[in-house]
Each structure stands twice: as structure tokens, then as C-alpha cells.
């Protein structure tokens, strides 16, 4: 499919697709009337604080809890040994590895959970947690994956049987021999070695739980910061051995997730175990530092990419070798089949016959995670590598980077496009997006300005990224989490008065589901969006689903919503035929009304139909107007876009400033353009953060540097560049209303654009790479190195 | 945040505050803007048994300009300086103020608290060293005036005694032939300096440098005044070459540490570049007063 214009079909009173409807959830957030986990107070509730390891790698010789236990107000001190008695000292990760809940044998990263204090008051719990004394025998801390895989490196996971090295996984994709052959016949091979540094999703609300296990009823109600409440319920059932019907996970308002709230964390398990044993509710809320040092990090990929090209500027093949730093436990949230997530989408927006992607992951003495921080399972790393590589290839060929891209793009008539690593891209028009971005930025004009500036000793750079994403997992055949197929669901109930409630298996964390999902129903059923309530996040009260991450809510749950709405419309048609005393085939549907074709006066509204469904159903038809649909998508969706960044670099200090940031996105059909814009703005800001200032690093001892917001930098409105947005609309051919998902495009696509811009300013000096964050000192060092030959 | 337990006092008058310090100075920490003390308590780097909140003390928020001197009371916030017309009497001060922290922190943090805290990454101490400020220290039975160079001892250490409070900070105003600047490299707004350079120049009637001040932030174990570079400027006719020479001296004298903000080599280089730029900007202002 090619780019089309999309205009709303429904009037604003109905507010279907394409209306920039104001976010209905915002009133309660702005007025401070949201309800977050930390707002939950239950009678008799106790508080938990966690004692964490100060060192990165050490054997635990002894743990002395007596001083802490003696503090007034302390109810219990929980250790790994205690949990082991309930078979809870270890738990499964979402990648099928195991993770210590509370350390029993060794600590494997700084900040690891060692013991927990349960007390009547959080301050008491914090004070007592500091009175737990642990005797450690320190071991060599392994702070990078290269060292981890050396023969003489100490074994981090000596808890596992039959494990002889720190290799966590090895996985490859594509055609090795074919790729080698393409490289043998290439005119040029362009190589880029780069590190995508460790970052952290850092939601404003940290992770937390209120676990309330009622000893009389055996009901466990667990309020937690969860992006995937149903999957978490199943994990809890498996880990804790509780009957699943007795577990109710409530994910109330969530203050941002970005992937950080996909995993199950030790604190959740300990609080639940404590509540079970003590028989009182237990609350645990992380501090900012705890969130940064122990919960799901993202990225940390060391990548070598090679592009085989011809002198005419055609890409012939791609070879990638990647080593990832997984931390102490392999805890990526990703489909079982794909050990490095969807990193093999690394072939990008370009058409060439062969590629080979080799990946390895190594254990290190760092926090576990590898969550998809605002991206679909490692797509960000992939997009970054190919877009940096393509830019460098253009320089080596002496071609303009835009021209080189245009020459190699997959063409609109090639869709569905079978990529060399096995993806089937649904639709795209990459040239249209890039040309639009070039038009917006004034590409030729800026090029001329850049040349002129260079003559005056100034440094200006232009960076492009023409990314393709893959989002909206599954289909279930290929995509699962711990065996659970990645479908999603929607349950729609239209009440007698024509108002409706929609219940979903996904969970908004700020994306605006309460606004946008109502618009999907409005589009399909003609019920005004304001008459539709959205319910999410309570497993007792919503149909099963895999949750919100990897931009999958609109592609999967959104599709389920459209399908169930259409099913109810079909049923409504029967009722309308009954009311109009006409035959179904003669009826026409028009934005919430059925009428006999050619006779609009005869209309009955969806509200009339809803009332009749309960008061006057046709004989033989099941009463009511409700239904549930489970949607297993036939394929992923492939949003794309082209971003162009212009920067000015200070040749003396290495500081750089974004002069222009033009972002053309294509996410297929938009539900709510305003919310799409917001998602893109957020992602572009996060991309800017990663490219310019943000990373979590460690010293040689494994101490985390980046454990608070003075060290882990979050850009404010002050330094965030101004964004200029544009769009093309290429519907997904397999999604019920052509949407693709947009929550992550900008985080995925933009880092390479910023970095390419800085490299572009310096490439005439011989600079070919600066690893992120491209901070002024790194820019200066690269210039110095280039100057000294 | 979960600090260790502490007692809290909130005196209503300066006399009351000073008498509390007189009696219990060793265990009492003054709470001014709290923008350094509270983060340290949160991280439990500091666990003072008692906090004495001075924010209710009346009449301590003025910025006065008298007889060539700019005077800040103890509770003058960074943002008061940003907004103040009077503060423009010293160019180094007025140009530094918007670089201190971020807008929210500036609403609470105080100039005096910043000097009393003496974080070597703090901006104000360099400004005061470059401009030759002095502080008034008051206790219940005495008052003394101390030059900034003597006040700052080493990082997080000053010669403010446990029974004393900084009540005033005095900065000489620039003359019409004076100029000053603050250059700061930060990773984002609200970040402490990777490198900060405070500069101040006074020209004589003939346009030569009569008095120069240069002080550096974040590149030594305390804020560093650079008399060698100042001496190289004084008595000389300003020129790009002269500024480059002084900047070079400053970059030699400092001793930065390598960290996540950059290598020592890089920071030294930035001291060179920023001192040169700061002097040039200071001079640009100062020469406007030449007739
Ligand atoms: C996010 C953030 C970013 C920041 N960025 C910067 C920056 O870029 N540059 C910068 O310079 N600073 C920065 N700061 C620090 C800020 O400027 C503080 O305001 C300042 O360091 C301390 O002033 P205060 O009034 O807050 O003092 P407090 O925190 O209240 O006190 C600090 C210390 O000084 C003592 N004290 C306070 N007042 C007096 C007094 N009158 N007499 C004697 N002792 C006193 C206190 O007892 C305490 O020991 C930042 C702070 C934060 C939180």
C-alpha cells in the first residue's frame, strides 16, 4: 500500500478515528486524583524495605539480622534462607532463566536484594534494613562482557548446573554462507564498531507493590506497577504455587513504564510472601536509586556491523556480530524463540538479498534486565546500527547519505517484503517519507549552509535516520512470553441505554488508552467516544492479555477492539432489521445508524438497537449486546519514518546543539493525531537523551554510576530540541483499521539521526564514530584523535 | 526520602537562632534552602541530629547596593539574584546566577548556603573568589568579616565556627570600566559544572588591566583562584594573545579528575577555552566604560 491521506469519517460528536480528542484521563492526573500503587492504604498495612548488596560480586558468608529484628516496630526480617523454605529463593525470569529473589549463595551485582525488613512504618523499616550485617568474601567483579567470556573469568552463575562459562546465549539468524559470498564479491566493505550503552527507562513512578493475602480466604490481591497484569498473575501462580483463581493482580494508575514494569521483581515476590506468612498487607515502593540500580535496564549491546557495497552504491549484504551485556540474570522480556529479541530486524529499510546476524549474550556483575525501553525487543539497537552504518557507507562511497538511502530503499511494490532474516514487512513507502523530511528541512539549502560554514571554520552536520520498526507482537505461532502466546483481547458491553464499557487485557501507563480505545469503538459502532468507558488493569475484571509494551496495544488489543465492535455491529444489524421490519441485506450502516438503503429517514440508531437488544430482541436471537474477542495478529506491523537532524558543533569545546529536528513518521492510520504527536515528542526527547547525555556505567569494582538523577540525566524542556513533525500514512494491510503503533518509533529512530548529525559535522576530519552518549568530551577526543592522524 | 532521625527547630528571630547555635552548635545544622543538605540527608551522607530552619528569620532576604558594594543577606535565593537589578552592579555575579542549578532549585537555594557548603562543584564560590568578596559571620557575642579566600578552607570545609552563621555576603561592584563573566560547561540544566570559569576585569583609564580575577569550578579539590593568571593580566593592555596567555596559565594550574563528565585532559582544555572566552566577554563589557 502506498501513502494516503486520512480524514475522520465520524463527526466530532462521535469522535472516531482521526479526531484529536482531548485525553479523558488527564483531569484526574492534573487534579491529583489518580490512584497509584503508593496511594493505596489498607488497614493494618505493613511496610517493607530491602537491604541490598554494596558490592558487585561476593560470596555470602553469613547474614546477621539480630540487631534489625530487635528494633521496635520491626515485624520480620526476611532472608533468602527463609524464602528457600517456601521454595521461593529463586524465581524464573521472562527469558526462562532464573533470578535470585533474595541472595542465598552469592551476590552478583551491586544493589542485589539480600534481605527485607517488614515493619509498622517505612522509616523504621529503612533504619532497620541498615542494621542487617552481611559478611562477604569478595570475588572479582566482571564489569564487561568481553572480560566475562575470557577463559579465566570467574563463573558468575555457579548456581546453575552444567554451566562452564559466562556465556548466556548464542543465537544467529540469516544466511552465513550466502553473506560470506556476497562479501567476497563486494567492491567495498564498510565496518562500524559501536556500543549502544546501558540506559534505563526511568519511569517517573518507581516500581512497587501492595500485597494483601487474606489468610481466611486465601485470596491474594496484589496491587502492583505492572504493564502486563495477566501475564504477571500467571507468573505468580507458577512461582508461588498459589491457585490462579485466588490471585487478583490490580495494576492501578501507572506513572510510566517504558518497559521497566514488564518484569516481575524480587520485591513483589518478597512482599507477597511476607503478606502470606504474616497475614497482613505489605507495601513496598522503591526509591529512585533502587529503581535505577536494580530494575530492568535497557540496551548495552556491543555491535560490529559490516556492509558489503558495490561502487555504484548498492548494498549487497550485511554482516553483524553482537555481544550483549546481560547482567547477572538473563531477564530480557522477549519471545522465547528469539534470544536477542528482534535484533535481527537490523537489515533495516533497505533491499538486499543476504544478511547474517550472530549474537551472543554474556553474564556480568550488573543488574539484570535487557528490557525493551520504549522499543520492541531490541529493535532500537538494530535500527541504530544499520542507520549509522548506512551513513558511513555513503561517506566511503563519496555519496550523499540521502542519495545512498534512496538508491537502496525497499520499493512500495515490493511489499509484503520478505527480509533476509525472515521478517515479512507489511507495507511502506520509505522514499516518500525521506523526501518529505528533506523537503521540510530544506535539504539542499542546509547542505549549502554547511559547506559555507565549514569555510568559516564552523562545524555544521546533517544526520538522517530512515528507520523501520517491527511492533505489535505476535502472531502467537512465533511470539510468546514464557509460552503464553502474544494475542490480546477486548470485551465490549453495550448497555441498554447505548453506553458502553470496554475491558482490555492491556494496561496503559500514560499512552492514553482511555481516550483512544473509546475512539476505536466510536468509529466502528457510532457510539460517541464520551459514552464509552475503558477498564484495564484488574485481572478479575478484564479478559486475558499479554500487556502493554513493544507498541502492541493498538496493533493487537486495538484490533481486538475493532473486531468485537464489528461483531456487535453485525448482531445489531439483525436487531435493526427486526425493528425496521426489513431484511438485513437491505440495510445500510452509516456512522451509528442503520437504515433501509435509499431511505435514510427510516434509520434506527445504535442506541435504539442497544435498547432493543435488552427489551425487544428478535425471536430466536440471544439477548444482550456484549462480546469478547481474542485477536491473534496475522503478522507484526512495521511503522517507519525518516528523521533529519541539523547540529552545530563547537570546534573548541565539543559541545553540540540541535538547530533543526525534522521527524516524518508513518504509523499507518492514526486513532488520535494529538496523542500520536505526544508519543513522538516523548520519543524524540528520549532519543536525544540517549544520544547526548544518558547512560548507566560502572567503575572497575562494579559500582553503579548513574544511581540517581544527578548522575543519570533526564533532559528537561530546557535542553530538549524543538521538533518539527511531518507524516505520511501507509495503512497496515492486515490490521482491521490499518494502524501500526507509534509508542516507540521516535525512540527507535532518533538516536541514529542525532549521532549521524554530529558525525557528519566531523567526518571531513576523519571521524567515523563516537559512541553514545555523544558528550562534548567524547566529541573533543574524537577531533583530537583525528587531528593527530 | 528516608533520612536518619533528626530533630527540627525553627527559630523566629536571629537572636534566638544565634543562641541555639551558641548552646548546641556542634549538633545543629543550619537549614537554609536545603538544596545541598537535604539531598545529602536523603543519601545519608549527612545525618545531623538537629536541623535549625532559618527560613522564618525576618529581614534576611535583601540585596543591597551601597557605596560600591553589593550585599546579600543570608536568605537571598539564587533566583533573587537572577531577577535583581541591583545585582547587575557586579557582572560576574549577574552572569553567573542563571547558570546555578535549575529554575526550581534556584527558587530555594541561597548564595550564603552555597558558600557555607563549599562544594568544589558549586558555582558561587568561584564567583566570589574572582570578585574578591567577603563574608560577615555572626555569633551571639561577636561579628567578624572574613575574606572569601580565608573563608573557604577545603572542599566542604570553611572557617565558619559551629556557633556562627553567615549573615552577609559582600561583593565589590564593578566600576564603569569593569566587566565580568561566568562560563560553564554542564551536561544539562541543573547539572553541576564539568568546568566553570569566573572572570572579572577592571581597567584603568588608559585601558590597561588594573585588576583581574579568575577562579575555577570543578577542576580542583576546592574552588580555585588563579593568582598566577591574574598577575599575568594586571598592568597589561588587553589583547587576544594576553587572554590566551592567562588562560593557558589557568589550564596549567588546575588539576581536574577524570570522571564520567570527561577526562582530566579534556577539562584542562575547556579551562583554557573558557577562560579565554570569559576574559574576552568581560573585556567587552569593561571597555564600554572607556572614554
Ligand atoms: C538538582 C540540584 C542541582 C544543583 N545544581 C547546582 C549548580 O549547578 N551549581 C551550584 O552552585 N549549586 C547547585 N546546587 C546546589 C544549590 O546551589 C544549593 O542551593 C546550595 O549549594 C546550598 O544552598 P542552600 O541554601 O540550599 O543550603 P542548605 O542545603 O540549606 O545548606 C548547605 C550547608 O550550608 C550550611 N548553611 C546554610 N546556610 C548557612 C548560613 N547562613 N550560615 C552558615 N551555614 C549555612 C548548612 O548548614 C549546610 O551545611 C544544586 C542543587 C540541586 C538540588
Which keywords apply here?
heterodimer; A: 789 residues; alpha+beta; Aldehyde Oxidoreductase, domain 4; Aldehyde Oxidoreductase, domain 3; seven-stranded mixed β-sheet; five-stranded mixed β-sheet; 19 helices; 25% strand; globular; B: 291 residues; Uridine Diphospho-n-acetylenolpyruvylglucosamine Reductase, domain 2; Uridine Diphospho-n-acetylenolpyruvylglucosamine Reductase, domain 3; Enolase-like, domain 1; 3 domains; five-stranded antiparallel β-sheet; four-stranded antiparallel β-sheet; 11 helices; 14 strands; 33% helix; binds flavin-adenine dinucleotide
User: How much helix is in the residues of chain B?
Assistant: 25-40%
Strand order of the largest sheet of chain B: 4-5-10-6-7
* Mean model confidence by pLDDT of chain B: 97
The total of helices of chain B stands at 11
Oligomer type: heterodimer
What's a concise summary of this model?
Chain A has 789 residues and is an alpha+beta fold. Chain A is 28% helix and 25% strand. Chain A folds into 3 domains: 150 residues, Aldehyde oxidase/xanthine dehydrogenase, molybdopterin binding domain (Aldehyde Oxidoreductase, domain 4, 2-Layer Sandwich), CATH 3.30.365; 186 residues, Aldehyde oxidase/xanthine dehydrogenase, a/b hammerhead (Aldehyde Oxidoreductase, domain 3), CATH 3.90.1170; 318 residues, Aldehyde Oxidoreductase, domain 4 (2-Layer Sandwich).
What does this structure look like?
The complex is a heterodimer of chains A (789) and B (291). Chain A is α+β, with helices and mostly antiparallel strands. Chain A is 28% helix and 25% strand. A seven-stranded mixed beta sheet of chain A has the order 3-7-1-14-11-12-13. In chain A, strands 9-17-16-15-10 form a five-stranded mixed beta sheet, with helices on both faces. Chain A is globular and about 85 Å long. Chain B is of the alpha+beta class and 291 residues long. Chain B folds into three domains: 7-53, Uridine Diphospho-n-acetylenolpyruvylglucosamine Reductase, domain 2 (2-Layer Sandwich); 63-172, Uridine Diphospho-n-acetylenolpyruvylglucosamine Reductase, domain 3, CATH 3.30.465.10; 178-286, CO dehydrogenase flavoprotein, C-terminal domain (Enolase-like, domain 1, 2-Layer Sandwich), CATH 3.30.390.50. Chain B is built from eleven helices and 14 strands. Chain B has helices at residues 14-24, 37-42, 78-83, 91-96, 103-106, 111-117, 124-131, 148-151, 227-233, 240-253, 264-287, and strands at residues 7-9, 28-31, 50-53, 63-66, 69-73, 134-138, 143-147, 152-154, 157-158, 165-172, 178-185, 195-203, 209-217, 224-225. In chain B, helix 10 runs antiparallel to helix 11 (264-287). The termini of chain B are far apart. The mean pLDDT of chain B is 97. The complex binds flavin-adenine dinucleotide.
Amino acid at each position: 500500500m502506498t501513502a494516503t491521506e486520512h480524514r475522520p469519517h465520524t463527526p466530532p460528536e462521535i469522535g472516531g478515528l482521526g479526531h484529536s480528542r482531548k485525553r479523558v484521563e488527564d483531569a484526574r492526573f492534573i487534579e491529583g486524583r489518580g490512584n497509584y500503587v503508593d496511594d493505596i492504604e489498607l488497614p493494618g498495612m505493613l511496610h517493607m524495605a530491602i537491604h541490598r548488596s554494596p558490592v558487585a560480586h561476593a560470596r555470602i558468608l553469613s547474614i546477621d539480622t539480630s540487631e534489625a529484628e530487635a528494633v521496635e516496630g520491626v515485624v520480620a526480617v526476611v532472608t533468602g534462607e527463609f524464602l528457600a523454605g517456601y521454595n521461593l529463593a529463586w524465581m524464573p525470569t521472562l527469558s526462562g532463566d532464573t533470578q535470585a529473589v533474595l541472595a542465598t549463595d552469592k551476590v552478583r551485582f551491586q544493589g542485589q536484594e539480600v534481605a527485607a525488613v517488614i515493619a509498622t512504618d517505612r522509616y523504621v523499616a529503612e533504619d532497620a534494613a541498615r542494621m542487617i550485617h552481611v559478611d562477604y568474601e569478595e570475588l572479582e567483579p566482571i564489569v564487561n562482557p568481553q572480560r566475562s567470556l575470557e577463559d579465566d573469568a570467574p563463573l558468575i552463575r555457579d548456581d546453575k548446573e552444567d554451566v562452564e562459562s559466562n556465556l548466556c546465549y548464542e543465537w544467529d539468524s540469516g544466511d552465513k554462507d550466502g553473506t560470506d559470498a556476497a562479501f567476497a564479491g563486494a567492491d567495498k566493505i564498510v565496518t562500524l564498531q559501536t556500543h549502544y550503552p546501558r540506559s534505563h527507562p526511568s519511569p517517573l513512578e518507581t516500581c512497587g507493590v501492595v500485597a494483601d493475602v487474606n489468610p481466611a480466604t486465601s485470596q491474594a490481591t496484589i496491587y502492583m506497577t505492572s504493564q502486563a497484569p495477566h501475564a504477571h498473575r500467571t507468573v505468580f501462580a507458577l512461582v508461588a504455587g498459589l491457585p490462579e483463581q485466588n490471585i487478583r493482580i490490580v495494576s492501578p494508575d501507572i506513572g510510566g513504564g517504558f518497559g521497566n514494569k514488564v518484569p516481575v521483581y524480587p520485591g513483589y515476590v518478597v512482599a507477597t510472601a511476607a503478606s502470606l506468612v504474616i497475614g497482613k498487607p505489605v507495601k513496598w515502593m522503591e526509591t529512585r536509586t533502587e529503581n535505577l540500580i536494580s530494575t530492568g535496564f535497557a540496551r548495552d549491546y556491543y555491535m560490529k556491523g559490516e556492509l558489503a557495497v558495490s561502487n555504484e552504491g548498492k548494498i549487497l549484504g550485511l554482516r553483524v556480530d553482537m555481544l550483549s551485556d546481560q547482567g547477572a540474570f538473563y531477564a530480557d522480556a522477549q519471545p522465547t524463540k528469539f534470544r536477542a529479541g528482534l535484533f535481527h530486524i537490523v537489515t533495516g529499510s533497505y533491499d538486499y538479498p543476504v544478511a547474517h546476524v550472530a549474537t551472543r549474550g554474556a553474564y556480568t556483575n550488573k543488574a539484570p534486565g535487557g528490557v525493551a525501553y520504549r522499543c520492541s525487543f531490541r529493535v532500537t539497537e538494530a535500527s541504530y546500527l544499520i542507520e549509522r552504518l548506512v551513513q558511513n557507507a555513503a561517506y566511503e562511497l563519496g555519496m550523499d547519505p540521502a542519495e545512498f538511502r534512496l538508491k537502496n530503499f525497499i520499493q512500495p511494490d515490493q511489499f509484503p517484503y520478505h527480509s533476509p532474516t525472515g521478517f515479512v514487512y507489511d507495507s511502506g513507502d520509505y522514499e516518500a517519507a525521506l523526501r518529505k523530511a528533506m523537503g521540510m528541512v530544506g535539504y539542499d539549502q542546509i547542505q549549502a549552509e554547511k559547506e559555507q560554514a565549514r569555510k568559516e571554520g564552523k562545524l555544521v552536520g546533517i544526520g538522517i535516520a530512515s528507520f523501520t520498526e517491527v511492533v505489535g507482537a505476535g502472531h502467537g505461532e512465533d511470539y510468546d512470553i514464557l509460552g503464553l502466546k502474544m494475542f490480546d483481547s477486548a470485551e465490549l458491553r453495550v448497555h441498554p441505554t447505548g453506553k458502553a464499557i470496554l475491558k482490555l487485557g492491556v494496561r496503559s501507563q500514560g499512552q492514553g488508552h482511555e481516550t483512544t480505545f473509546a475512539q476505536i469503538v466510536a468509529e466502528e459502532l457510532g457510539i460517541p467516544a464520551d459514552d464509552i468507558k475503558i477498564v484495564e488493569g484488574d485481572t478479575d475484571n478484564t479478559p486475558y492479555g499479554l500487556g502493554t509494551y513493544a507498541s502492541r496495544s493498538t496493533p493487537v488489543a486495538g484490533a481486538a477492539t475493532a473486531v468485537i465492535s464489528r461483531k456487535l455491529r453485525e448482531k445489531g444489524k439483525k436487531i435493526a432489521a427486526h425493528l425496521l421490519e426489513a431484511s438485513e441485506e437491505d440495510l445500510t450502516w452509516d456512522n451509528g445508524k442503520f437504515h433501509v438503503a435509499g431511505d435514510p429517514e427510516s434509520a434506527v440508531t445504535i442506541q435504539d438497537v442497544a435498547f432493543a437488544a435488552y427489551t425487544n430482541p428478535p425471536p430466536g436471537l440471544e439477548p444482550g449486546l456484549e462480546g469478547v474477542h481474542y485477536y491473534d495478529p496475522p503478522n507484526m506491523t512495521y511503522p517507519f519514518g525518516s528523521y533529519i537532524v541539523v547540529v552545530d558543533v563547537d570546534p573548541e569545546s565539543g559541545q553540540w546543539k540541535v538547530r533543526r529536528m525534522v521527524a516524518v513518521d508513518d504509523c499507518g492510520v492514526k486513532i488520535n493525531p494529538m496523542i500520536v504527536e505526544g508519543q513522538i515528542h516523548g520519543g524524540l526527547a528520549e532519543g536525544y537523551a540517549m544520544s547526548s547525555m544518558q547512560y548507566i556505567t560502572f567503575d572497575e569494582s562494579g559500582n553503579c554510576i548513574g544511581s540517581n538523577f544527578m548522575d543519570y540525566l533526564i533532559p528537561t524542556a530546557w535542553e530538549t530540541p524543538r521538533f518539527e513533525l511531518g507524516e505520511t500514512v501507509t495503512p497496515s494491510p492486515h490490521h482491521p483499521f490499518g494502524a501500526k503503533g507509534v509508542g516507540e518509533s521516535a525512540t527507535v529512530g532518533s538516536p541514529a539521526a542525532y549521532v549521524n548529525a554530529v558525525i557528519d559535522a566531523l567526518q571531513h576530519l576523519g571521524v567515523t564514530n563516537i559512541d553514545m552518549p555523544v558528550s562534548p568530551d567524547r566529541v573533543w577526543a574524537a577531533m583530537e584523535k583525528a587531528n593527530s592522524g | 526520602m528516608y533520612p536518619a532521625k533528626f530533630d527540627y527547630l525553627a527559630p523566629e528571630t536571629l537572636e534566638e537562632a544565634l543562641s541555639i547555635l551558641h548552646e548546641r552548635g556542634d549538633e545543629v545544622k543550619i537549614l537554609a534552602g536545603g538544596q545541598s543538605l537535604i539531598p545529602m540527608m536523603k543519601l545519608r551522607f549527612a545525618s545531623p541530629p538537629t536541623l535549625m530552619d532559618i527560613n522564618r528569620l525576618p529581614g534576611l532576604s535583601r540585596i543591597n547596593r551601597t557605596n560600591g558594594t553589593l550585599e546579600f543577606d543570608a536568605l537571598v535565593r539564587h533566583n533573587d539574584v537572577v531577577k535583581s537589578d541591583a545585582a547587575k552592579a557586579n557582572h560576574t555575579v549577574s552572569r553567573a546566577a542563571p547558570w546555578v542549578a535549575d529554575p526550581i532549585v534556584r527558587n530555594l537555594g541561597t548564595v550564603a548556603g552555597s558558600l557555607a557548603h563549599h562544594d568544589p562543584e558549586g558555582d558561587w564560590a568561584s564567583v566570589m573568589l574572582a570578585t574578591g568578596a567577603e563574608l560577615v559571620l555572626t555569633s551571639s557575642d561577636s561579628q567578624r568579616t572574613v575574606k572569601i579566600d580565608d573563608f573557604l578552607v577545603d572542599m566542604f570545609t570553611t572557617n565558619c565556627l559551629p556557633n556562627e552563621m553567615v549573615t552577609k555576603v559582600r561583593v565589590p561592584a564593578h566600576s564603569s570600566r569593569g566587566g565580568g563573566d561566568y562560563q560553564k560547561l554542564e551536561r544539562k540544566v541543573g547539572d553541576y559544572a564539568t568546568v566553570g570559569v569566573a572572570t572579572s576585569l577592571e581597567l584603568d583609564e588608559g585601558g590597561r588591566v588594573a585588576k583581574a580575577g579568575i577562579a575555577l569550578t570543578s577542576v580542583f579539590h576546592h574552588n580555585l583562584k588563579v593568582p598566577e593568571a591574574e598577575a599575568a593580566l594586571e598592568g597589561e593592555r588587553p589583547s587576544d594573545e594576553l587572554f590566551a596567555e592567562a588562560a593557558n596559565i589557568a589550564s596549567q594550574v588546575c588539576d581536574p579528575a577524570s570522571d564520567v563528565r570527561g577526562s582530566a585532559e579534556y577539562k584542562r582544555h575547556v579551562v583554557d577555552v573558557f577562560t579565554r572566552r570569559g576574559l574576552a566577554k568581560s573585556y567587552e563589557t569593561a571597555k564600554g566604560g572607556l572614554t
